[in-house]
Amino acid sequence: MNKKEQLDNDPPLRAVRTFEAFARHGGVNTAARELDVSASAISHQLRVLEEFLGQSLTSRQGRNLVLTDEGREYYRAIRSAFAVLRSATEHVREKSATRQITISLIPMFGINLFIPRLGEFLGENPGVDVNVTYANHRSYPSDAADISIRFGTGHWPGYHSEPLMSGEVTAWCSPAFVAHHGVIEAPEALIDLPLLHDEERGTWAQWLQSVGVKHPAALQGLLFEDGQLALTAALNGLGCALLREPLIAPLRDRGELVKLFEHALDDGRAYYLCRRADGELSREGLNLYTWLKRGLVRSAV
Description:
The chain is α/β, with parallel strands linked by helices and 301 residues long. The protein folds into 3 domains: 3-78, Winged helix-like DNA-binding domain superfamily/Winged helix DNA-binding domain (Arc Repressor Mutant, subunit A), CATH 1.10.10; 94-164 and 269-300, D-Maltodextrin-Binding Protein, domain 2 (3-Layer(aba) Sandwich); 170-259, D-Maltodextrin-Binding Protein, domain 2, CATH 3.40.190.10. It is built from 11 helices and 12 strands. The strands form 3 sheets. The chain has a 5-stranded mixed beta sheet with strand order 4-3-5-12-6. A 5-stranded mixed beta sheet has the order 9-8-10-7-11, with helices on both faces. A two-stranded antiparallel ribbon has the order 1-2. Helix 6 links the parallel strand 3 (100-105) and strand 4. The longest helix is centred in the N-terminal third of the chain and has 25 residues, at 69-93. The radius of gyration is 23 Å and the shape is globular.
């Protein structure tokens, strides 16, 4: 491919940026205020992108411009890239704040384990600013974080990783679910009950197979983008979920979740504490890294 062909295939970045702002805000005027341009300029750039893609990304409903199905699909594809871009830009702009630490993590880990115990670290390290961002758990691009907590096999180019917590899962549901469906006495009974899936349906299939239960080739049930959404569905009695016990220990202790069976599935993935291999952590970053290794997970079990 020659240089001209390459340029012809590259998306118009100004138009893509305009579309992302419009889709994120849900309106032309709000996007125009963010980008400091006129509403007509927003509409023009949206048309430029639609012409490039050969797809209608927006449609008119009364006086409002809304996303089409193709527009929603395109936004879902690009939003993580823009989130990473904004995070990296903010990190560089604030780098002069020497007492700031940026940590990226998966929502379920952050909401249920890290943030509830963050006060302990801040109490030991007064004056430190902690910037908490989401880790893109599917591809883990360079996310501008000093430290990250990731889920996988532990091998990410450019990062040093140490195992932090097992990734094994067990079956859980809410007391309300048991009250409605009755006591679940054997794993075989799960086949006829609503199952909640985190990202994909394969994990439930593996768990059932590992416990010796024959199951349909295609398991049904609600499918959620991440574990936090699946956990929320389980708490609301929508089905049974495969969850990692250290992340839900407070919910277990308060009786908000019931463990159905002791059988655990370990597919070789785990939570890892990661830092960049090409640089040194600041004193504050090293303190947070050491604190995480010292017992964040052990204190939750």
